[in-house]
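pasting for the record
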Amino acid sequence: MSIKLERINSELVKTISEILANETRDELMHTITITAADVAKDLSYAKIYFTSMKDLKKEILEKELDEASDFVRRKVAEKMDLRQTPKLKFVYDESIEYGNKIDQIIEKIHKNEEA
C-alpha cells in the first residue's frame, strides 16, 4: 500500500472518530470506536472498521452507522482535503473479539498446566 493511502487511512480513522464523538447527537455513536480504514486506490470507496463498548448485535450497529454514513461523509469532506470523498461502508471489526478469545484460551491452558 502506498504511503499516501496509509496517511489517508490514518486521517480517516482520526476524523471519523472525532465526528462520531463530537458532532453526533445519537448516544450510540459515542460508544463506537473506529479501529481502521481501508480506502480504495481511486478514493471512491472506504471500508471503516469499528467496535463498540455496547453489547449490541453487530448488525444493529452496522445498520445505525450505515444510516449515518451520508452525514459522516459530508463532515469528512468538510474536514479533509481530498479530491474525492470516498463512499463509507462500516464493517464491524472482529479482530479484537478474536484476540480476546485467544487470550482466554491461552489463560485456560496456563491454568490447566498449573493444576
